[in-house]
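Researcher: Re-running this chain for the archive, since the previous output was lost when a drive failed. Same request as before.
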Amino acid sequence: MGKTTNYETWLSAVTLDAEEDVYDLYNSVSNFEGSGKFYTSKEVTNDGYQYLVKAEGNADDLFLESDEAKFAFLKHLASNHTDAEDGDIQKWYKMKTELGRTD
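Model: Regenerated structure tokens:
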């Protein structure tokens, strides 16, 4: 088990099957908690915080060494794994789930 700081390398080994997986990853990283198949832990350092993101079935963890790295990853996730116009994954996911409803 190792750590990587490369988003695409890590994301290529993680299966994002549906919008829910993207939202769960966003939620886990944003709130440093478990969400779906993802779990993010937050550690206090002398310079701020660092984050370790784990995904079920993935041997490597994603290491985000600062808040700046966390926000850059979330922006990358929104830009490359959603069609959210403004990069707002919460709004994007809400719209996707509402469009999928058949009331």
